[in-house]
Amino acid sequence: HGRHHIEETFTRSLPDRFMRGVLAYLMPRPAVFRWAMVLGRLAKPLAGLLPATSPDPGGATFLRRLRAMLEAVPDRIATPSPVDRPQVFPALGLQRKRVALMPGCGQQVLAPEVNEATVRLLTRLDIEVVNVAGSGCCGSSVLHVGRNDQAIALAKRNIEAWLREIDGAGLDAIVINASGCGTTVKDYGHMLADDPVWAEKAKQVAALARDVTEIVAEVGLSNVTPRPLTVAYHSACSMQHGQKLTELPKKVLRDAGFVVKDVPEGHLCCGWAGTYQVLQPELSRRLRDRKVANIESVRPDVIAAGNFGCIGNIASATGIPMAHTVELLDWATGGPKPAALG
């Protein structure tokens, strides 16, 4: 991977190493990350004292990055969700599948409602969902800053946890509702291909990885109450380019009764890209503003996406409500109305 090669062959400046080190420490640890967000919320009013421009065209200077980091802190920090603790959620009817839900890391802090909606939707579709003890961050958050060894250690922890469950009660799939995480888990076989101990284990786990929309499409929706809303679907880079899932998420939204519109220049990034929003804030903002202009041009009632980072980034620059795809599917099949829709 390019990032890993750069970290091995290039010496970054001390401020750059510090910023990347902070991100690599905080992001895989939900409890620590949550406290960092609380402190960041207190410090956010001071962001205006930091420089809004940078001599670097991407904004890659320490103080400009620090401002971007504070500006990205949400106004409301959610409390921990009970869904994110290791446990089993039984299917509501006759069990059709048994799946593991990847709990993730940053999403637990920034968008816990996504895992909650996923559990409600899947159990309503007669799928037993298990949050497996020992599973957690997929490793993508540290891959973004070139920490390859740390990412592999996180991958091995997940593989070990899921294989215990596979060998125990069994799993039909490992469901992931953050597209960046899904891309990484599906890549575990490649990440560990040269490790004689872990290669086959990694391939076995990667073969079970599914985006939540793949599982929904496989079992089909039922008891749908159509909502008369037009949805602009934003396909995250990791969804369309990484996992090659382009039409399927839109199909399940249409199956749920929504009118779905494509976004012009839909192949372009929204500017989130994991840590890009912080590490290259000027370029990130330009990408975000271009994405928002394209979305607003189709005049949707709501914007949907399958990545919590994209949702937070795009929603910060538009008045159009935005929700995760799984929240809309949950709502259409009997769940609560997404909070973003009021």
Q: What proportion of the residues form beta strands (DSSP E)? A: 5-15%
Poorly predicted sequence stretches spanning 5 or more consecutive residues: none
Summarize the main sheet. Answer: 5 strands, mixed
Number of strands: 9
Distance between the termini: 42 Å
Q: Would you state the CATH class of the domain at 217-341?
A: Alpha Beta
Mean pLDDT: 95
Assembly state here? Answer: single chain
Alpha carbon gyration radius: 20 Å
**Which range best describes the helical content: under 10%, 10-25%, 25-40%, 40-55%, 55-70% or over 70%?**
40-55%
What is the topology, as strand order, of the major beta sheet? 1-3-2-4-5
Overall SS class: alpha/beta
Describe this structure in words.
- A five-stranded mixed sheet has the order 1-3-2-4-5.
- The chain contains 18 helices and nine strands.
- Helix 17 links the parallel strand 8 (302-305) and strand 9 (322-324).
- The chain has 342 residues and is of the alpha/beta class.
